[in-house]
Specification:
heterodimer; A: about 700 residues; alpha/beta; 5-stranded antiparallel sheet; 18 strands; B: about 325 residues; 14 helices
Chain lengths: ~700, ~325
């Protein structure tokens, strides 16, 4: 099946093949006959051996063999004449497996049979390890052998330290042994986790491993095996607790609230944003203190479509059942008790807090239902940059400042920083003599890690995060390795967002207040423009939680994962991107304030394959739960059946304005369907409706 | 871009359905049911399933069923999960799953789940995440996922997740594209793709594309057309397929065709077989090569077949 050259067989080869085929066919039909009739004579067993030695993939023959062994063992138990000793019986099996493996050392059935034999309590570790040694010499990447090795070491209780030494030997023998590196990482993880003797000091162990892998990297920089191991070491070095990053409303801000609405609508969203996806955010792990004691605890929602309940952004609603113009303070204490953990199990044990004030006022200058009686034109002239309007400027500046109280700022362990700096130096050195792609990528990752440590740690080293070099490295990589340009573009986007958003100055340049000049309404939106930046992904959203109007047009976005956190978003422009299906818009379902959406000029409907099919809520992966009504398909009309996902998406959105022109999926039928589905819609592709 | 010689491939598949006397066929007699799945699904993707008479295929499949409810690889062979899935998949192609005693088959599959959530391939106890995928995929197609402990099954799969983001056959086993497909597929079907670190695994997977444009299954190994399925479908399920060069892969697959006699091989100029023909064509479908039916990356069946089962019942 694999690696056989293509050539038409000669007549001699054809005859040969027919002869072999006939012989094998006989063996195989005999085997089935013996098996079905439970015939375990010496002759029958011999035939099964012949079969398995020439065709070790014949699984029924291995089953027959096990039954034959059981039969023979029973005969011995019953003290029958001429019965074989268990030792001899099982020995025959071991020899058979070795012979079968000689024919094909990747035959699952053969390896499993050996395990089955060993479970009967026979064969020494030595014998097994010697066998393994032979196979691993033939092919050091044979995963069957490696799996079997792990089976034996567990069965015979061979210590992890010994096995670690074995991987060291294998690696010294040949650096390009991914299987050995893999095993090494598994063993080290175990030893570190249980703090085995000699492995108590994590940083020392990692330091030694960095030195060890450096040999491999410098010897053969183009071999991937060492680099993957290095990447794992890096991850281990950077492993830390999840951090609380930001909130909306932000710490130290003053929120304006309206009482011009019924009591049940007097609430505002409070969002907490963490450095990675966490679970366990609830009223017992987050304490919110303000004048109103609702009695029951606040309910927190993860802002990610995630069955596991982990999310970077968490939302709750703060009620304010007030009638008079006044202001109040809110203090939010996070991680008061352990309970918030990352998806990898690291606890968020640093308790921290934020506080802000809220004032009731008459003028709606905030985030309640924005009256959109007029079409949003997205005209850039309608944006007042921060510099022209001092009040707005202060508001925006305070929103942009990602601040938590000084006491809350976490520190970065010095050793971690040293390791990263050291590795950066080594990578640079290596790249001087070898222009290798993964080396460059590793350097870029190291520099990003370095910047993250500076940004999120209390670094008094005086260094500032520098992203220019990293962006340049990704440009290099795109040229060196064009096959993976999609990957580098995504990484580039993540770095670009890191560069733009934490820096208050650069972020302010992208912000403004949007007011539709042609509209008599006084409502304006705090807006951010991130258009035309070649972004293929969005991230670093902890800095944008307050945004009401976001322009992400003219980028390369294929996914809008992460936008769920922007709960204040009312207007979103995604035109001229690469969104390839309605399923890619799934995150929008969580944006309760969204009223204006522009997804024109994308690729919706242009693809036969939907890459988000299993990442969205759908009956195909049992994630719609009771919400899915297959009645849509049995009772529903033809349109509903045809546009079922669009139905599920737009039904839950309260859009007032929608633009979808320029997508392959759009035809008169879809347009009519959507207009009917959304009675609140006032503007469709620029024209008024309803 | 090269061309897919559709007619030749159709002829090739039909010819091997008939030919059973040469050595290659005899040595694979025990997995003929898999072969039926590979051949017939390829025909469906090429739009030619009607070239085969289902009234000949279906009775033969049913003869492969054992009294336990499971299916063997051929008539008279012992039952095993590997062939049970193929049987269900072929019946799905013909929209004839209802010829089965579904309860019986589902019970057979469910009986193979172990306490730790893993699945044995058959009563002889070999455990492998391939079997987790097979059990989950089969039961989902039969609409009887409730017969197993899905949480535990997912837990076991997650325990096979490696530090490079990939998955192996058992806990601690090295990441391999075939196993990754099985684990990602099982997590996709059960709705637990959140357990996958998509960026980490996506990068490991996209690095399978080598200079020739083909994909290998693990670092530092040779490219092979069958990985065009396993790596590609995994990338699609986690929405990272844009991290490889699709055009280059299409060209690699087309280069592996035998344009004279039909069929696709593991590598250019190697001998063809139905296994690689299926994976090559399925891979091309995932790459949106024109004129092919769309195939579902998790169930490895045409999308219209899958939609019919899940959206209308």
């Amino acid at each position: 099946m694999h690696g056989i050259p293509r050539k038409a067989p000669t007549q001699e080869e054809r005859d040969d093949s027919s002869l072999k085929a006939a012989k094998l066919r006989d063996l195989q039909s005999l085997l089935l006959h013996f098996h079905h009739n439970k015939i375990y004579t010496e002759e029958a067993i011999e035939i099964s051996a012949k079969l398995l030695e020439s065709n070790p993939e014949h699984y029924t023959a291995w089953n027959y063999r096990k039954l034959a062994v059981q039969h023979l063992l029973d005969r011995h138990q019953q003290n029958q004449l001429d019965s074989q000793s268990p030792q001899s019986i099982l020995d025959d099996e071991l020899i058979l497996v070795e012979n079968a493996l000689k024919t094909n050392f990747k035959a699952y059935g053969a390896w499993h049979h050996r395990k089955w034999v060993l479970s009967k309590g026979h064969s020494s570790s030595d014998r097994e390890l010697r066998l393994l040694g032979k196979f691993q010499k033939l092919d050091s990447r044979n995963f069957h052998a490696w799996n079997y090795r792990r089976f034996i070491t567990e069965l015979k209780k061979i210590p992890d330290e010994d096995e670690l030494q074995y991987t060291t030997d294998m690696i010294y023998d040949n650096f390009s042994n991914y299987s050995a590196w893999h095993n090494r990482s598994m063993l080290l993880s175990k030893l570190l986790e249980k703090s085995a003797k000699g492995y108590e000091k994590r940083e020392n162990v990692l330091s030694e491993e960095f030195e060890f892998v450096r040999n491999a990297l410098f010897t053969d920089p183009d071999d991937q095996s060492g680099w993957f191991y290095h990447s794992w070491l890096l991850g281990q070095t950077l492993k830390r607790e999840p951090l609380f990053l930001s909130s909306s409303p932000p710490h130290g801000s003053n929120l304006s609230l309206s009482i011009d609405k019924p009591y049940r609508e007097r609430h505002f969203p409070l969002i907490l944003y963490f450095s990675e996806a966490v679970g366990g955010v609830s009223s017992s792990t987050v304490n919110v203190e303000y004048f109103y004691d609702g009695g029951d605890g606040l309910i927190w929602f993860p802002l990610a479509a995630n069955k596991l309940g982990f999310s970077q952004a968490w939302l709750t609603y703060i009620k304010y059942p007030l009638d008079t113009l006044e202001s109040f303070h809110v203090k939010v204490t996070i991680a008061q008790f352990p309970g918030i953990i990352s998806s990898s199990g690291m606890p968020c044990s640093r308790s921290c807090y934020i506080y802000f004030t809220a004032s009731i006022c008459l003028n709606n200058q905030e985030d309640s239902e924005l009256q959109t009686t007029h079409k949003i034109s997205w005209n850039e002239e309608n944006i007042k940059p921060h510099s022209t309007h001092p009040e707005d400027a202060n508001l925006l500046a305070s929103l942009c400042k990602l601040d938590i109280t000084k006491e809350n700022k976490p520190t970065t362990p010095m050793l971690c920083m040293e390791t990263i700096s050291n590795e950066i130096a080594c990578s640079r050195e290596l790249l001087l003599s070898s222009n290798c792609k993964i080396g460059k990528l590793t350097l870029a990752r190291l520099l990003v890690a370095h910047n993250t440590l500076i940004t999120y740690g209390c670094m008094d080293s005086g260094t500032e995060a520098n992203y220019e070099e990293i962006l340049a490295l990704y440009h290099d990589l795109m040229k060196m390795d064009p096959a993976h340009i999609g990957y580098y573009e995504d990484e580039y986007s993540l770095v670009l967002m890191k560069q733009l958003t934490p820096n208050t100055e650069s972020l302010l340049k992208l912000c403004g207040n949007y007011q539709e000049l042609s509209s008599p309404s006084i409502s304006s939106y705090t807006s951010v423009r991130l258009k035309g930046l070649s972004l293929s992904r969005v991230s670093c959203l902890e800095h944008l939680l307050w945004v009401q109007m976001l322009d992400l047009s003219n980028n390369k976005l294929r996914s809008i994962e992460g936008l769920e956190a922007l709960q204040q978003l009312s207007c979103l422009k995604l035109s001229n991107n690469r969104l390839s299906s309605f399923t890619a818009l799934e995150p929008l379902k969580m944006l309760n304030s969204l009223r204006v959406l522009d997804v024109s000029y994308n690729e919706i409907g242009a693809h036969t394959i939907d890459t988000r099919r299993y990442l969205c809520s759908s009956p195909l992966n049992s994630t719609t739960g009771s919400k899915w009504q297959s009645k849509i398909f049995t009772d529903g009309d033809a349109d509903l059946k045809h546009f079922w996902y669009a139905y599920l998406l737009f039904r839950d959105l309260n859009l007032v304005q929608l633009d979808i022109v320029g997508n392959a999926v759009v035809d008169e039928r879809l347009k009519a369907f959507l207009v009917k589905l959304m009675p609140a819609l006032k503007w469709f592709d620029g024209e008024s409706c309803h | 871009m090269g061309e897919l010689v559709v007619e030749k491939h159709i002829k090739y598949i039909i010819s091997i359905e008939k030919k059973q006397d040469d050595f290659a066929s005899v040595v694979m007699e025990h997995l003929r049911l898999n072969g039926a799945y590979w051949g017939l699904t390829t025909l469906d993707v090429l739009g030619k399933l009607d070239a085969v008479d289902q009234n000949e295929v279906i009775p033969w499949i049913m003869q492969c069923q054992h009294e336990s409810g499971g299916f063997g690889g051929n008539i008279g062979h012992d039952p095993h999960l590997l062939y049970t899935l193929s049987a269900i998949q072929v019946l799905a192609l013909f929209d004839k799953i209802d010829v089965l005693d579904i309860e019986k088959v589902a019970n057979y599959i469910a009986s193979l789940q172990n306490e730790d959530g893993s699945f044995s391939g058959d009563i002889w106890g070999e455990i492998d995440t391939r079997f987790s995928y097979i059990a989950i995929c089969s039961l989902a197609l039969l609409q009887h996922l409730g017969k197993i402990n899905v949480e535990k099954a997912v837990e076991y799969i997650v325990s096979c997740k490696n530090l490079d983001g990939g998955f192996g056959c058992t806990p601690g086993a090295e990441s391999h594209a075939g196993q990754i497909f099985c684990c990602v597929g099982a997590l996709a079907i059960t709705g637990y793709l959140d357990h996958v670190d998509k960026d980490l695994l996506g990068w490991w997977l996209c690095e399978r594309q080598v200079k020739s444009g083909g994909l290998n299954g693990r670092p530092e190994k040779l490219p092979d057309v069958c990985y065009s399925w396993w790596v590609l479908s995994s990338l699609i399920m986690i929405d990272r397929v844009h991290w490889i060069d699709k055009k280059k892969l299409i060209n690699f697959i087309l280069d592996c065709q035998d344009k004279q006699n039909g069929g696709i091989s593991d590598r250019p100029d190697d001998a063809v077989d139905v296994f690689h023909t299926y994976f090559g064509v399925a891979g091309l479908s995932l790459l949106e090569y024109p004129g092919l039916k769309a195939i579902d990356p998790a169930y490895a069946l045409p999308v219209d077949v899958v939609n019919k089962i899940f959206l209308t019942k």
